[in-house]
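Budget justification, computational time. The allocation requested in the original proposal was used primarily to generate structure tokens for proteins on the priority list. As evidence of use, we reproduce two of the resulting records. The first is shown immediately below.
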Amino acid sequence: MSCSVWPGLALAASILSAPAWSQPQVLLPATAVRVEGGFWGPRLAVITERTIPHSWAYMGWELRALEKANGREVTGDLNGTWGEANLYKFIETIAYSLARQPDPALEQRVDDIVRLVAGAQRPDGYVHAYITNSGKPPWDPEFLDGAHDGYVLGHLIEAALEYHSVTGKTALLEVARRAADQAWEHFLGPAGKSGFCGHAELEMALVELHRETGEARYLDLARAFVEWRGRGVVKPAGPTPRAYFQDQVPLREQVTLDGHAVRAIFFATGVADLALATGDSDYRLAANRFWDSAARRRMYVTGSVGSRAEHEAFGEDYELPQDGYTESCAACGLADFAQRMLLLERRAEYADVLERVLYNAVLHGLALDGTTTYYRNPLSDREHPRDNCWVCCPPNLSRTVLQAGRYAYAAAPAEVTLNLFVAGTATVALARGPVSLAVATAYPWEGNVQVTLTAVPAGEFALNLRLPGWCREATLQLNGTAVVPLPRDGRGYLRLARSWSAGDRVDLQMAMPVERLEANPNVQSCSGRVALQRGPLVYGFEGVDNDGNLDAVLARDPQFQVEAPQPDRLGGVVRIKARAVDGRTLVAVPFYALANRGASCQEVWLRQDGWRPTPTWWEGRLYRPWTPPGE
């Protein structure tokens, strides 16, 4: 995904006097953020050093298919209808890696692939090696909902945008633009045929391409793909329910987010992108309906979505079985959806979900060694080993994790916002000039965050620090002096607007106790049970730490003990010990670290002694802290 900074924006007298949050925000480019040390630095290093070299093994199908589409003789199996998207997700992963660590040899390898992609492009601009090699028609109207033409093109566009942003090279972007132009001609040109790819993805990529190029046709095509759904313009290729393709009713009649979870989340993200790009209130309202459906009624406590194995789909409201399907790609998609909603609505609650899904569901999908993955991420599992699923999830996980630094920040002409707390540095272009800052933190193991401004422009601007939804107690200091009361802005942020000096330091200290969470009473699978959370991390119990016996009941007073991290323990995790009713000591580790020590049972929700639902109104919440009755 490519997002621009504010280029050469002239200062207007009204900017600094405008109400808080009156200006639109944007993400920073990947090259503007450097993640160093802390929690995320080692994880990004694993992807650069282990995941990327390992991933070449499952790119063989895609590269052979491109070579064949270039007219070369090849041996071995070729890819399928959706596989080429994996290659483009992998190129996007490499782009983010190059932004943090240049590698001329790796860059040259990508350039060689770009030449293959360009060589496989047809004269009219269409490019999809599987379609070319199989002799099938592009955008086949007889199989449009079952094909992946748009899904593949969307990932090509996103890879091209990021590779151009990081390297400055235009060859892949030129291929992507020609392919997008062909799609526009096919659907909206003089002889255009209404339709849309059954796997949403292209919609949000087209909006990103519009932002980069200013070409209105890309925005028009994204809008058309959204508006044509639910109107019978795509011929069903089989008996699959139309909700699977988000094609059951027109957009303005869609109340819930239904169907194939990955397709649905990508579709919702595209709608939010359209709302951001156009200001259309119908798109904004639809994006909010989809958000409420997914995040307030159909999301697991870890941030996973998609509970049903049948059609890999969302279930009904509160249908969240502990062994649900929970595909990794759906979690990655939810991270992007949350980020778009954060830009659209600018409230910290969206960053809370972004943080939850990144630290839990997404990280759980990728092993600590960076070479094995989970396609599914159930909260209750019996001897489910990790696998090396060479399908859609591995490059989606790697490209999502590598964006942790970009997710952390947003910028407007006169404000810098920290949405996540990631150790490292960033440079933010404001209207008055660039701001450089350094973040030092051991988050999520500790709740202390130190932000030092190393370079600032003259004049006033605002620094916004998110106060996480899990945080009950916090203090703030500016250059060693307490800021009292906390400068809450009503949107979940602490806002400091002033004229800054280089060397100014802000210290945020957040209490980080262990909490027991309860689920909305409508989530029947969690009745009588609690989950442990400390800071942004959801914890789980694994058989290997608990003598293989997870049939336990937490004591009413579990006497939680938080252990200091040890480098040789799952990469330095903080463990939690708790007392069970039978006197046993139970050990919990962060959910993301489960399933890294061989096949073992795992549970997130344990039975709780004395459990009763809290008899107060839930106010649309799905999870909240639980305390024993009478306390």
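The second record produced under the same allocation is shown here.
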Amino acid sequence: MSQKINIRQYRNAIILFFIASVTILFFMPGSGRFKYEFNQGEPWMHEELNAPFDFPVYKSDAELLEEQIRIQKQSLNYFILDSLTVVKQLALLKEKINPDGDSKEFVSLQDLFIFLYNRGIIDASKFPELKDRSIAVVRGNTYEEIPVSEIFTQNSAYEYIQNAILKYYPVDSMNLSQFIAPNLIFDETLTSKIRHKNLEAILPTEGMISEGVRIISYGEQITPEIFKILMSLKKEYEKNLIGGNRFLTVLGRLFLVFGCMGCIFALLMTFRRTMLTENKCIIFIVILLTSFIILALQILKVHPNLIYVIPFTIVPIYISSFFYSRPAIYMYFFMILLIGSFVPASFEFVFINSMAGVTAVIGFKRSYERKELFFTGLLILLVYITGYVSLKLLHEGSLSDFTWYVPLLLLINSLLVIILYQFTFLFERLFGFVSISRLVELSNTNRKLFRELTETAPGTAQHVLQVANIAEAVISDIGGDPLLVRAGAMYHDIGKMKNPAFFVENQPSGNSPHDKISPEESAGIIIEHVTYGVELAHKHHLPNAITDFIKTHHGKSLVYFFYMRYMNEHPDDKDAIRKFTYPGPNPSTKEMVVVMMADSCEAASRSLPHPDETRLNDLVDKIIDRQHSEGLYNDSNITLKEINAAKNIIKNKLKNIYHSRIEYPG
């Protein structure tokens, strides 16, 4: 039903959306956007493009990586020739072999060791990767590049000594290996410093394009070389905003952000206006949207492809879990469009995330078990990868340049969605929301509060289950949240546990305690089941979303039967209506209206002596038309079309409950 807009109700929401928009603007990149969209392997679909200014041609990431790998492979490892090692080993040699003097034979042996240590001895076991390479041997302030094959290892040095001294000493008379030690010491600091210097010397560009040079014409295929030139032009354009007005760029960003956030606000005003009046609700939504937008803008500064690791689909999952699917999808789309305006491959980003977002909402909305959540996460991953591969084939015609790191990022993305979904419990506690999982728990008839209702007021327990079935069928047909309706219907009459015998469904046939008290007392007891139900809901920590069904299932209607009895006895009491009116408020959502309809019709049908099809149809029409004419539905967003659809479903459900049974002989 239509509702007059009071802008003061939405003041806090407007302020929060404004603050969010300004915050997003603050984190936005300062550069402009290149106006052309293009993909390698596709034809150029714009007018002929000439270089608007001189700009360098940047090497691709793959080329830079290849050059870095080549530099690292070609870089020398630096070894210091340790002069102390030879002194120490020669002293030991003299002590062990020639302690008394320098014989001619010892001098020759000493010269051999000096030759070995001057050439250099390396510990080959620590550097097996250097076998076929050269190293830099540092002597003082200079170094010499020497192939490792020309440098002695401990084993080769020992063999060389053994073969060279046969004419001086018997081979078996001594153990010469004890005098051989590595004297080439790896200098990791110097090696890293020079390697880093070589990497820094890599030029990011490979030539220049002069102003006025034709780059590409309409219809011409974008080859890898032209693609590199176009990407270089795009980079320079966005970096320097050449040819544009920076003020107008800022103005464009302002319109973009406020436009997207304004559309989200307008959609909520149209479809879920009540969400804008609840501060905790709008705070949660604004923080959620703003956080992911800012996170995306910051990730884009690191590397564009890292955008695919951000689990954007958790945003509509959170919103649809706590609220409704339709606004969740709308808000998600505008968030993706806003972020997509700054992603290099805008269409690819928006397309893939749009498909994944719809899949996530549909899948998680129906996921009541943990295994289903896992399979939904896998489905999101499948949609992501299918979309990515499809666009790759469309744009390039092959998977020859396919890289696995993007699917790997998408895998991490899907895993993060499953992990982050577990935080719904935290948000329930912080904001007082109710999630799908919580509604599933509340719908369990084995819960303590519902078992108490079954034991204390068994007729009422049967009544609320019938109401839950009817209301769930209605809301599933006209659109809404079936789980919320079922849980709300199951607890809407828990207040009847206080005086169960005063309610018709708990009374033995023809025995009513109302016959012994006044109409005012009867009305007070009937009305009290709403206020007492709210007390029980708070005592048992039921969510506010469920408590609202208790408050609104009668709205501000009259306890009509006892009111008429009282007026027949006191026709002059002008203030009587106040004593016989429920405290309300009236239903504010479609779900609450449906429970009100189902509750009234199911309860009234029990009073029919012979509930045939005609009487049930008349009863439903009479009750719903009266509620509608009394304005009980005016605060909700239910339409006349939905009201008529609800009537038909309630009629069919009641017919099924009271259908004629076949009489068996005997």
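A brief technical remark on that second record: DSSP finds 27 helices and ten strands in the chain.
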